[in-house]
User: Fold RAB3 GTPase activating protein subunit 2 (non-catalytic) from Neolamprologus brichardi.
Amino acid sequence: MSCSLFEFCRLQEFKTVRHFLFRNEKSEPVEEKNQTEYKHLMRTSKGGIGLKISFALQVTDDAGGQGEPWLQDCVVSLSPCADLLVVAREQKAAFLSAKWRTDDSGREEMTLGVSWTGTLSTEEGGSACVCIFTSCLNTFFRSSTGRPDWTCVVVGFTSGYVRFYTESGVLLLAQLLHEDPVLRLKCRTYEIPRHPGVTEQHEELSILYSAAMVTIDGFSLFQSLRACRNQAARGTAASLLTLLLLGIMTLCVFDQMKNASILGGFNASVKGSPPAMSQYVTVGSGPYTGFYYAIEGSSQPLLSHVAMAVASKLTSALFSAASGWLGWNKNKNEEEAPQKQKPKVEPATPLSIRFGLPDSRRHGESICLSPCNTLAGVTDDFGRVTLLDLARGIAIRMWKGYRDAQLGWLQVPEERSERDFSPSASLPRRHALFLVIYAPRRGILEVWAMQQGPRVGAFTVGKHCRLLYAGYRLMGVNSVTSQGWQLHTQQVCLLDPITGVLRTVNIPFHLALSDKKSERAKDMHLVKKLTTLLRSRDIELDILESEARSILLDIKHPAVKKQALESLLSNKNTPVSCLVNITRALDDTLKRQEPEEVDAELLQLCSSQLKLLQLYTDIQQLHSAADVEETDSLEGIEEELSRVAPTLQRYAQFTPRHSVSFAQDSPDSPLPAQAFLSQLECTEDEEVKVIRRSETEWNQLGNFLFWSCLCGKSPLHKVCYTLQQAGISPQQLLSLLLSVWLHREKELLQKPEENVRNLHRLLVALSNMKGAVEESWDPQSISPWWQQVRTTCVQSHNAAAALLAALVAHRAAKASITSRADSKFQSEWEAVSLELEQWVVCVRQLEDVLVLQTLLLVPPPPGATGGATVQCSIKTLLEGGTGGIADSVSKWVFRQDISPERLKEILQKRENKELLLAVCQRFPHSLSPDFLFAHCCWEYVVQWNKDPEEGRYLCWSVEHLKMVSSPHIQQGVCTMMWSTFIAKRLSAATFLMEKVGKAPKDRLCRRDVGMGDKAMTSFLGCCVQLLNILMEADSAVEEVSAPELSIEEAWSGAEGPRCSLPAGPAPLPVSIPATCCYDLQCQGEEIDTLPKFRTKT
Assistant:
């Protein structure tokens, strides 16, 4: 309910734009350049009519480098719909168009990316662009999205030329209207009159020079640009202006007589009807502010002679451009001749000043017109911001300390819902006006209420930002096409060149209501008072409850009352009893009112929060109850528990202990009522839906609901009945139950039998709820209810808790299927279904995972390399493919620092290693000796590649490879090792020995090979052994059949990649220097190159 800065767009490739605009150029110091421009403008102001109007689109931002401002040397303009940004400097320009992309969280966001970069067309000798204007244009055929059909960019140059471009950089029109530099471009678009009697303003484009001003009728210009665009077959357009014009106005009779008396004296004549005239306001020096009037239908050339001349020139330019596009004027010399000759410029008629605000010392820099055309903000060189009343021609307010300020306006309509029941609902909607001031010297953005209102918002932003305020909307819209059309435009945007973020200001309407009698202002004061009351800690509970209830009932507006209630419910210091009493009092008050006066959303919020608070209180009371239900025996599961009990005990022994944590993060800490309310919401069907946010909050809610039941301290049937009556779906309750069961595995393993009984009773109670297991479920198909339990167990890394949950669910599912079969067939045959087969496979897989995880949890011996413990689950093993199990065990062998000989003795049952043998027995195919040695070989060579100084890793890798009995696997692993890790290092070593001619020094070995001289000696010896293994395996491949890669039946559903170990012959990528080459296919020859691999130590 307060001011806020909202990020709605990000700029991409902003560094690319800076590099393009400042490429191969040396930027002069900012201070020196500002002084040069100031002197030039002062010299210009001495001639003509003495006006100095600043460049509205020149602002300060980063210049050549990261820490220097560069955007101040550029001209920037943003289209009203914020879908096109133009950045230009001298003859170069970059166009950034709107694009939509998906961020990391999956949310769609708008970005501005570079769509065109290039050099703007200029005449011979070159000229710099001084102002750019972007405006969205609309055709008669409106798009269904309410967006503009195309955009046009209008650029003014120091040569006096004004050029029109499409957003793809195609030149549409070029016209020389005056030979002085263009200072500003200003546009006025059609606005729907909010009140009857207001003069309808037509579209108009104004071009300001140092001593002249040209206006172009918007309708004629729009038709010409649309014709040029159709000829060019382009799709977008934009335009840029920077001049203040108030449009056509009509004086009242009194003002007409007053002006006639002042201008004509006592004998002045007064016409019967007040004349229509256009008003222009300028700022500069001599006078500081000037007011000009051009009477419609008089001899003033601004709207007659000049407009006719401009229309004629636009027609000729259109004809010339269209003829070129259509293939006419084939002669190249005839095309270049008109370009060299400057077009004739029609002379302008002087426009005298009517009145102004004289201030000889003050120099106006910029002026910004309000959307209602009644106020304007003016900045000057004294660091002041002056507010002008344009109707009376006076200054009504001034702010100090805003040097180099940038201005913008925001017009906020009143919310519709607040006046629907008021007697004045048929009147036009009220609009609040706010002035936005950006002070770059202080890096602050302020929002002020008009006209004498306070500051309603202030934001700390960067010192190099840019405030973009268009002051106009779509061109080509009239009173017919504007009916019922919602324009999606941004009034004020703040561009941060450091982060490339575009932000807009959101202002609620009620901030303009500064009257002490305003109900909204009073309500906001009560909200602040309630916030202060909730923050105070030294207050008694009865006083807190009474004052909070009084404040909440005194608030009038439903939206503010809803905000206050939500703030109260989210406060952690307020007890539950206080929340219940205050919410019930508000609910009773709303129910006593007339139905048509009650806000439905507020009443729904009170009812839903009362229901949730009552549920929270009931669960708390059940957990603190002393009556505990009797537990039943579990026939069938006891045998399963006794069978896996030794593995569970060993698993619990190796399970790591919890680290130090804060008390509020402990699972045993009570769940606050505010956290409970934030995770549940009531639907329109009077059901309760659990909102899943973070994993921690989900586990906390599960602990609050079910942990006491699992420990046998609460009547679980009453808890389940209470949750069922509240309307929570059984599927969400099942997910919460499994979450707390898997999360608190260590506590559950202390008393597994008791906890398993309680879990079984809870699972049966949830299964009997309405909507859990479908009544039409066929036991021969898979039940979604039991599939949810299996999916949770399959994905869990807590192997012991998942196995116990699977055993309990298997028994419960079997009992349910048996009861259904008995009710249908009433036979003595045991029911067999696909559901039970799925449970048998899941239990077998979980038992395998438990044994494997127990092995992986064995801590490494002191002094070993160690590393992180691998966490496995059914899902990770299936996704790891056929070689995932052997890969996990090979990592464990490396962590345990087990030598190849010792591993061979373990596998041959010569050493008592029950865990490893148990794992190998459960995975006879995946952990066959050849596959395990091959994976250990690969793991050690990978670790050696990370640290080549550890030559022992490579030696053990070769030793593991020797243990492999299959020559096919030996050849495949050898080939992979050679091509991946050995070839490059061996090539570098042999080249170094050839270059030096003797044993190289340690420094040379580290530089060329990446290891010391001692490590290289061990490396070359391992290479000799690897080549011998490779040659022997290659000769024995043809004599032995390739091994079959098989996997256990329970793990046949592996979805990951196949085992990377090749089982067949593979090509030998042996590529070493000539001194190390040998022919592996030769028969019986000795390898005479081995001495060359030895170096002196």
